[in-house]
Amino acid sequence: MSLGLLLTLAAAFLAIPALLGRASPSERTKPWPSEVTLFLRCAWWINRAYCLLVHRLVILNEPQLPDSGPAMLIANHTSGIDHFIVQAGCRRVLGFMIAREFYDVPVGNWFCRALGCIPVKRDGRDGSAAREALRALESGRVLPIFPEGKITRASGREFAEGKLGAAFLAWRSRVPVIPAYIRGTPTVQGVWAAWFTPSRARVIYGPPIDLSNLLEESELDRREERVLLEELTLRLMDAIKALRPLSLALEPETDVE
Questions:
Q1: How far is Cα of residue 189 from the mean position of the Cα atoms in its chain?
Q2: Nearest CA to 188 among 80, 37, 106, 67?
Q3: Which of 71, 87, 92, 234 has the smallest count of CB within 10 Å of its CB?
């Protein structure tokens, strides 16, 4: 582990008392989901402190995630720190689908396992990851996913085309899908560069997406399934994009760029 990372984590840990003092009474007394162990509570506050200190994160509202049970949380992908930004606003445990080369790093592998992260191969043909994601949802976990499938380094001002993976999981699982929109994150290349580059990040969460008319079909041939997944993908991306003007209305972009 690098010295810079250790110093950042140490500063975040030391900031926790001040952060607790700034938290509202309802936030300090709000019960934690049963899935959140004492270790994960400590990790959550460290992450929250890191996001506030380094990225001056503002969480514009609370996510409408269920207190228990399965759900999907989808967001645009702007930076290597998006995972931390999204988790800072959620008390549910978010077991992200992450590239296998990051999952297998010895320093972080134990933590990925504690969060229930799912390793994914970058070739786009990792059927085992999709099956593991469906099992995670069946077990009542929250599955966060970035439908774009890659980072678009424009701090939320641009969006890439959505991939079909998130739509497939939503169709197969039939769980609530909650969108989020991220902006103001570092536009630098690389996860470590993003980790240490100060920014003015903002995240806003939307209401559950109404997919009822698209989730009625269960038995489709390959062509029909493709058409359905494409329509679902558009619906998911539109829900994320619709949060951008709401985010800007609460805080203009000139204030965070």
A1: 19
A2: 80
A3: 234
Angle at 208 between CA 152 and CA 227, to 5 degrees: 65
Contact 72, 97 (CB under 8 A): no
CB burial readout 185-224, b (16+ within 10 A) else e: bbbbeeeeebbbbebbbbbbbbebbebeebbeeeeeeeee
Show Cβ contacts of residue 176 under 8 Å, excluding neighbours closer than 6 positions. Answer: 65, 66, 70, 71, 72, 208
Q: Cα separations (Å) of 105 from 46, 100, 111, 112, 134?
A: 21, 9, 10, 10, 24
Residue 27 · residue 62 · CB < 8 Å: no
Q: Which of 98, 102, 199 is nearest to 154 (CA)?
A: 199
Residue 54: closest CA among 21, 30, 88, 25: 88
CA atoms within 13 A on the CB side of 232: 27
Residue with more model confidence, 12 or 184: 184
The most confident of the ranges 11-20, 68-77, 207-216 is 68-77
- Predicted TM-score of the model (pTM): 0.86
Report how far residue 61's alpha carbon sits from residue 233's, in angstroms, rounded to the nearest whole number.
24
Q: Convert the pLDDT of each residue in 114-157 to its tens digit.
A: 888 888 886 656 678 899 999 999 999 999 999 999 999 999 99
Name the H helices within 104-148. 106-115, 127-138
Give the integer Cα–Cα distance in Å for 236 and 179.
Answer: 8
pLDDT tens track for 154-170: 999 999 999 999 999 99
